[in-house]
Amino acid sequence: MSSATASRPSDFGYARVIRSGELIHVFGQVAFDEAGEFPHPGDFAAQLERTRADMDRVLDHYGGATRDQIVSRTVYMVGVRRNAAAASEGDLKYFGDHRPAATVLGVTEPAVPGQVVEIAFAVDLRLPAGGRRADGHGTTGGRGVGPALSSAGRPP
């Protein structure tokens, strides 16, 4: 896990990662580099790639958890309509066949100047790791957890 990913909680007033039993809750994944700098202001694709690399570092830090154990994520982004296709394409590349639950929220003013994406996610270590490791090697054996539900809470 990078120093930026596990940055000092006192700097923000909250913990970025909390493990509760076999559940890991990760908040505030932003495209900081290893030095804690923000190298890609305004560049959605570069920030998304960097943020996902940090997600992989978190998974590795917790005993080699895999992308298939990510059960949900919340993506906060500037320019949802403008960046939706790039975000979807990135999801397919990152998750393969696995489909964790997701919410995408449009935001107008993130905390870091030039920031256009932030991701929070939850990992359930009780789930099979599947074949896709954080390094992207292997096959993806994971599938979404449970039946799909519409926004009304009913199966579509």
Automatic annotation (TrEMBL):
- Which spans are transmembrane here? none
State the source organism's domain of life: Bacteria
According to the record, the residues making up region (Disordered) are 131-156
The family database entries (SUPFAM superfamilies) matched by this protein are listed as: YjgF-like
Record-given protein name:
Enamine deaminase RidA, house cleaning of reactive enamine intermediates, YjgF/YER057c/UK114 family
Which lineage ranks, top first, belong to the organism behind this chain? Bacteria, Bacillati, Actinomycetota, Actinomycetes, Kitasatosporales
